[in-house]
Design a protein that fits this description.
single chain, mainly beta, 1 helix, two-stranded antiparallel sheet, about 110 residues
Length: about 110
């Protein structure tokens, strides 16, 4: 595993549309492992492909119960609402109050493409 550089505000990649992940191979597994290590080292809650320079629909989320890998994620339902301070690893030292759903149901694939 390796720590990847986190893309910072101002880099055009953060504004581009990501492509679907179609190959579930060793390269994808390495990317997921690297993203988990990078997220852990940065002490963050989430990290998406573009934040490590990869325009693929992939993210790692860790809200305290261990990392969850989401490949080609789709939000299928939301419930409730909550407000709270939020930051972003690509916008260091910037925080804002954000309104988010209380619960989100996501459909995604795993490392094996299922």
């Amino acid at each position: 595993m390796a720590i990847r550089n986190i893309v910072q505000v101002g880099d055009d990649i953060l504004n581009k549309e990501c492509r679907l992940v179609e190959r579930f191979d060793d390269k994808l597994h390495q990317l997921l492992d690297d993203m988990q290590e990078t997220l852990s080292q940065a002490n963050g809650a989430g990290l998406a492909g573009p934040q490590v320079g990869v325009l693929r629909q992939i993210c790692i989320v860790d809200v305290g119960d261990g990392p969850i890998e989401l490949i080609n994620p789709e939000i299928v339902a939301t419930e409730g609402e909550q407000d709270g301070p939020e930051g972003c690893l690509s916008f260091p030292e910037e925080w804002g109050m954000v309104t988010r759903p209380m619960k989100v149901t996501v459909k995604a694939q795993n490392r094996k493409g299922k």
